[in-house]
């Protein structure tokens, strides 16, 4: 088996708590029916196109906020920040990433951006100091699952895909990574994710107990 010395982590939903409960809480706060946000923004062709443009940096978060607010009938002020206000750090995965680095594994963050202004999803996570490479989609004009963005991460880590594990909570992004040679893990439940990483990387990522 190829020795795996690289770990590539998605951010939202991997290093943070899951996105769906935050969205449900937002809908409740705003008086929206359950599922209204998903229906308006992700099951609508124009809205999906705008979100992909945001991820590639082709439109700003403020522009996205304005269009999304119009479709939802809400105020646009810091809409993205309001949607994800309940996200918190996922301590188990952050600790596992740190343990992997201590064991000599290179760890990169590969994230589809939701814009950086006026609300920055990454604030407080010290990505530039705690990880070996950081690729935020809008800064490179590419988004997952495009091969180029995976290849950019590999270049930054200085590793081939065959030596790396890729973790994402969005299951549809895993097969394109696997086609490039990554081992993949679907991040659904933190303990299971960490256990899968320990097996693939061959290192302990949790405290003995």
Query: What is the helix fraction of residues, given as a range?
Result: 40-55%
Largest sheet features? 5 strands, parallel
The strand order across the widest sheet is 3-2-1-4-5
Assign the structural class, choosing from mainly alpha, mainly beta, alpha/beta, alpha+beta, or little secondary structure: alpha/beta
* Element-by-element helix/strand order: EHHHHHHEHEHEHEH
Low-confidence stretches: none
User: What is the CATH fold-level name of the largest domain?
Assistant: Rossmann fold
Q: Kindly state the number of beta strands.
A: 5
Global morphology? globular
Describe the fold and architecture.
This protein is of the alpha/beta class and 209 residues long. It has two domains: 6-17 and 88-201, Rossmann fold (3-Layer(aba) Sandwich); 19-83, Orthogonal Bundle (DNA polymerase, domain 1), CATH 1.10.150. It is built from ten helices and five strands, in the order βααααααβαβαβαβα. A five-stranded parallel sheet has the order 3-2-1-4-5, sandwiched between helices. Helix 7 (127-130) links the parallel strand 2 (106-111) and strand 3. The protein is globular, with a radius of gyration of 17 Å.
């Amino acid at each position: 088996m190829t020795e795996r010395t690289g770990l590539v982590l998605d951010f939202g939903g991997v290093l943070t708590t899951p996105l769906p409960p935050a969205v449900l809480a937002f809908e409740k706060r705003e008086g929206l029916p359950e599922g209204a946000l998903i229906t308006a923004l992700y099951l609508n062709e124009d809205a999906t196109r705008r979100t992909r443009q945001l991820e590639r940096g082709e439109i700003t978060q403020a522009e996205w906020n304005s269009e999304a607010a119009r479709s939802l009938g809400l105020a646009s002020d810091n809409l993205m920040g309001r949607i994800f206000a309940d996200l918190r750090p996922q301590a188990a995965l952050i600790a596992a990433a740190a343990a992997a680095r201590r064991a000599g594994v290179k760890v990169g963050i590969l994230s589809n951006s939701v814009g950086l202004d006026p609300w920055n999803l990454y604030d407080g996570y010290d990505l530039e100091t705690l990880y070996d490479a950081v690729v935020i989609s809008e800064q490179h004009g590419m988004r997952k699952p495009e091969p180029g963005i995976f290849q950019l991460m590999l270049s930054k880590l200085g590793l081939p895909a065959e030596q790396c594990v890729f973790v994402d909570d969005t299951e549809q992004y895993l097969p394109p990574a696997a086609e490039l040679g990554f081992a993949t893990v679907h991040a659904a439940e933190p303990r299971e994710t960490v256990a899968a990483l320990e097996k693939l990387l061959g290192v302990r990522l949790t405290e003995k107990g």
